[in-house]
Amino acid sequence: MSESQAWDAVDAYFTDRLAPDDEITAAALRESDAAGLPPISVTANQGKLLQLLAEIQGARSILEIGTLGGYSTIWLARALPADGRLVSLEYDPLHAEVATRNIARAGLDKLVEVRVGAALESLPLLADENPPPFDLVFIDADKANNASYVEWALRLTSAGSLIVLDNVVRGGRVVDADNDAQDVLGTRAAIELIGTHPRLSGTAIQTVGTKGYDGFALARVLA
């Protein structure tokens, strides 16, 4: 068995026993695939982790930057109370349309609002509404703007809030000094920001699995 085959097998083992897709989440993946969306949603195990993090936080409000087909949105929204709120920002109108259908099928449309447009344009508009601080922010959008997204997450949260930044390893490219791709530079900038900002305490974890070699960063907002 090759290394990648072992990753896949272990992922399947854990998913089958701990985080199996149900009819709703499986349908969200099928609909996303049928609409031609890229197959870059979080895995079921990762979705369950997001749900657990939101539950541990006791989250009542969640901000998601990068909706895609709404798969991660569904996992996150399932952690919310009946009067909770999730705002998800999506650049691509087609992605947002598919996500909206998937979220409605999941019966979560009263909790979730998908806003269409470039996140760096949507975030100032959201801030202008002066919403209550978000308890959790999940960032999974264009990686070049990761540092800006973390900065906005700080503005829209308060002490105790959690920021989750996905895809920070980039197959190990994040530590390749000769790699100046925009996604790598954006990820490095975000990690540097988390590591040096006085209001953030964070760490990052490497992961392997069906999506290959990657990882995520966690940051807690301090007083």
Q: Main traits of this protein?
A:
223 residues, alpha/beta, 7-stranded mixed beta sheet, 8 helices, 23% strand
Number of distinct beta strands: 7
The quaternary organization reads as single chain
Largest sheet: 7 strands, mixed
Distance between the termini: 48 Å
Cα shape: globular
Unreliable runs, pLDDT <50, ≥5 residues? none
From the helix content, strand content and strand pairing, which structural class follows? alpha/beta
Going across the biggest sheet, name each strand in turn: 3-2-1-4-5-7-6
Evaluate the radius of gyration. Answer: 17 Å
Helix share of residues? 40-55%
Order of helices and strands: HHHEHEHEHEHEHEE
Summarize model confidence as the mean pLDDT: 97
Number of contiguous helices: 8
> Strand fraction band?
15-25%
Task: Draw up the topology in text.
Layout: H1 3-18, H2 23-34, H3 44-57, E1 61-65, H4 71-77, E2 85-90, H5 93-105, E3 112-116, H6 119-128, E4 134-139, H7 146-155, E5 157-166, H8 182-196, E6 200-209, E7 212-221
Walk me through the structure.
By secondary structure, the chain is α/β, with parallel strands linked by helices. The protein is 43% helix and 23% strand. Strands 3-2-1-4-5-7-6 form a seven-stranded mixed sheet, with helices on both faces. Strand 1, helix 4 and strand 2 form a beta-alpha-beta unit. The mean pLDDT is 97.
Describe what is shown at a glance.
With 223 residues, this protein is α/β, with parallel strands linked by helices.
